[in-house]
## 1
Amino acid sequence: MLVPAHVFREYDIRGVADKELSDELIGAIGQEFAHALYEDAPGAERLEIAVGRDCRLSSPRMLEALTEGLLRGGVDVIDIGVGPTPLLYFAVHHLNTDVGVMITGSHNPGDENGLKMMKGKASFFADDIRRLRDRVAVPIAAPERARGSRREVDVSKAYVDRVTEGIDLSGSGLSIVVDAGNGSAGPLGLAALKKVGLDPVALYCEMDGTFPNHHPDPTVLSNLVELIARVKSGNASVGIAWDGDGDRLGAIDATGEVVWGDKLMILFARDILAESPGAAILGEVKCSQTLYDDIKKHGGRPILWKTGHSNIKTKMKQEGALLAGEMSGHLFFADKYFGYDDAIYGALRLLQILARTKKTMGELLSDVPRTFITPELRIDCPDDIKFEVVDRVKTRYRSEYEVIDVDGARILFGDGAWGLVRASNTGPVLVLRFEAKSEARRDELRAAVERAVAEERKALTG
Ligand SMILES: [Zn+2]
């Protein structure tokens, strides 16, 4: 079968639904995935898989194609219906199925869609996805199996019960505005907030796969404009945003300022460390130094790790970390929850902190040293040289400075300042970021590193 190789990405499968994700391709993925599962579970009689889908218009079609492939491959399919990605993760734990697949385009445009897959309760990514791609292109002979069965199970009530367990915010006085961007987290998110006793102002919490109001991606400021305005005009304590499939959290302070993932992590880390002293807490290479310093200051064990939710979940298990997070708002709680990224649960944990302390996020973070940090800077760089450019920049700085190289090069300039150069896993792009104690120092380092990148690139391309 002719396979569009680029739809098989590092962490998931994704493409323009009607052009690149045909019934034939999705069916073949289902069948080969099923075969691979049996190969990995020798002796297993029947394997069972939970399948969920987001509210995109192409999701029902993809569900049918995927299910047909899985049934042909001999696995039993449990259809959990429409909902956010964490509902699928929950279903895998709650129903104790062997694996799960979520049909979702996450925060991407409405005409795109994709698959996020699990391997047991872990992520299915990188080499797993490459192997799947190869066997879809050239199918490997598999033993005949009886066709699987299909049933529907609604786990949404159990899910809301679980995420709200032990949380009561009635009488907290919190006034909140929620924006689900018409994505799949709206209805369940609202149900959870109401269950803990809150009465949120709801923006775009009805599912609509055409995303008529704004893009469901809270990492992009322009998607937060209306939420910010409503927080300010309504004097709300906090604004909450969910991405299209509910695994990324956006948060707006009472002042209308965005509180990004690394700052949210500081709030959660302090909360967790108060109960579990010494806990390991994991952040990614793009996070502010203030996060790692704050974890240490509060008696935790900070770990700086690779970007990407699959990388993070895997490392978290290895280290027994109780919390992990990314700038993008993927937040993973393993102290009282399952350790996957669930932004509905993340919102409840945030609100719990605000209710208990009776402070705003800004007030709670006021003792974090002020630094000057750039946003993520993206520079175009061809795929075939991007890793080499990063390597050469690393070598160049290594003689003089400490360089952390778990994911790209994070150069530590010795005065708390750092600069990051990493190759994106998802496109022909280098990602840069800089932080320092003064604006001048930050800009000076940025100019120097950008110059180094340009020179190394030139040396490679002539
Ligand atoms: Zn997402």
## 2
Amino acid sequence: MADIEGQVKDEELDAEQQARRRLALGQIRQYPDAALRMTARPVESFDDDLRRLVERMKQLMVEANGIGLAATQVGVLQRFFVFQASEGETVALANPRIVERGEVTTVEDEGCLSIQGVLVPVERSALITIEGQDEHGAAVRYELEEPYSRVAQHEADHLDGVLILDRTTPEARREALASLRPRIVIG
Ligand SMILES: [Zn+2]
């Protein structure tokens, strides 16, 4: 399987996949969009609208070559995300709560579908237990190890407006922000 860098898979794409990826990324809010900094509200209605949105987000995630996507990244301020919970299994998790963390943490480079071209080191718990609800409102619980634990922590952060830029070292943050600054072209 491809290397996983936080939210983004690192693999070679053919021309058609690249075109699909660009289209998908065009529908995902990009830094510094204000929605990425907002705190999402709890999901209260588990209705067809929510399930349609979950399906659309799963599709966007795959087309963008990602392994997780939070509602805030598509401008929906509700507490849910879709993510790869194990090889080949993409699930939706609403109102997530990390209820247990292992003592061990690891530092790996992470990317984000909303911050293209940036990879920064982020420290995360290697093992977590996360609880919440699926898209039908049923209680679910996942015991996750890397890399899936990292993805779930990344997505849960998105629901509180927290980005990898806030989780990395001051040096990596400075470098990332410098590379994100719009270039001024004269002439
Ligand atoms: Zn992200």
## 3
Amino acid sequence: MKEENYWLGTTAIPRSDPSRALPASVDVAVIGSGVTGLSAARVLGKRGVRTAVLEAKTFGWGASSRNGGMVLTGMKLPVPTLILRYGRERVQRMYAASLASIDCVEQIVREESIECDFGRCGHLEVACKPAHFDGYAKSAELVEKEFNHKLRIVPKVSLREEIGSDIYHGGLVDELSAGLNPARYVCGLATAAERAGAAMFDHTPVTGVERIGQNDKRFRVSTLKGSLTARELLIATGAYTTDATPALQRKIIPIGSYIIASEVLSDSVAHELSPKNRMIYDSKHFLYYYRLAPDRRMLFGGRAAFFPENENTVRESAEILRRGMIHVFPLLRNVKVEFAWGGTLDFAFDVMPHTGRSAGMYYAVGYAGHGVAIGTYLGTKIAGVICGEPNDIPFDGIPFPTPPFGLRSGHTWALPLAGAYYKFLDWVS
Ligand SMILES: Cc1cc2nc3c(=O)[nH]c(=O)nc-3n(C[C@H](O)[C@H](O)[C@H](O)COP(=O)(O)OP(=O)(O)OC[C@H]3O[C@@H](n4cnc5c(N)ncnc54)[C@H](O)[C@@H]3O)c2cc1C
């Protein structure tokens, strides 16, 4: 088994010219080159805004090249919780944004001819307990009533039409969701941003940002390759946010997520496991998510360990995930696991995406494992706002709580407690 990201072997990451010097000044500096930063840079470049993308590692290095490639509708929290918290009107706009985000990805893929195996295969949520399945009927009814969006209930007797497993109690399908190859997608976005005119800098960690002065509202952005000034800043650093932007770093809880990829399966086995090639996840807090890769490997992921990835957590997680995969699909008992890797999710304490401005800097973070579509959408929308469009982003300005000490970035000693808590919730609910 290789401890590496399977997706990276399917593409070549674009590189920036190492001899290119940073410009002295730009209109907008984008920190971070995941789907958020790159989709913003693409729009800014197209509109003639002088933009620099500053990436600490290689383009797309963060969660955006390592994820499950599930382009999902909806949000992490149940709709009733959302309505209680934010009111019906705002939640309708949030849900509409989640649906629009799938179209946004599709449109970019088409306009930029990104070969990333984008397909509207739909997603399937599977119920781990009878009570979870009972909740699906209410959920589907509410989503149709509030958002005019149809979800389809799949009773246990029909579940074999959707998935080659007998352990679940039913399912819920959303046909609007899609799947893609995330590494190819983020590489395509980087190429598109550069083609649009953004100046691209990889291996350029930002070490600090500050206002130039009281009367000069521009920012000075310091990097390991020198500094530049920028009229506006977009922080798009997700779970990998550093103390270069400490106020934002304090808001983010970094949580590990891991994926294994099986050897290539035969057509018939692949079809038996996932006859409709859905993006699938289960109903637990400590959930499993899985799908077939375009070359018919089973990609099986989950928060096997709560800590962000390192050599040990990847190895331990691979074994936990292999056991999980076999529990779901006994047919894969003798199948080899060829790849295992991990990445880090950016959770806000309230499990919501957040956009806004902090000390004048734009940010978009907090996707909680649900960021491929919404990150692309929010990056695109924030670029519009920077260009003077009205700000109708429904996540903008909602309260953004700071997690209690011990859960924020860099202080991960409390994560096993959080993990145990979520396992407990799965046991009792
Ligand atoms: C294993 C895994 C599976 C997932 N599966 C799915 C899925 O199937 N569907 C889904 O919707 N979401 C999924 N997610 C979540 C999704 O990948 C993320 O929400 C999304 O990619 C975040 O994008 P981003 O652009 O905000 O940040 P990232 O892609 O994380 O990019 C942030 C970048 O900022 C850079 N950076 C950080 N600090 C600095 C600095 N100081 N200077 C310069 N650069 C800096 C980092 O190097 C990094 O490349 C998954 C995540 C993981 C880890």
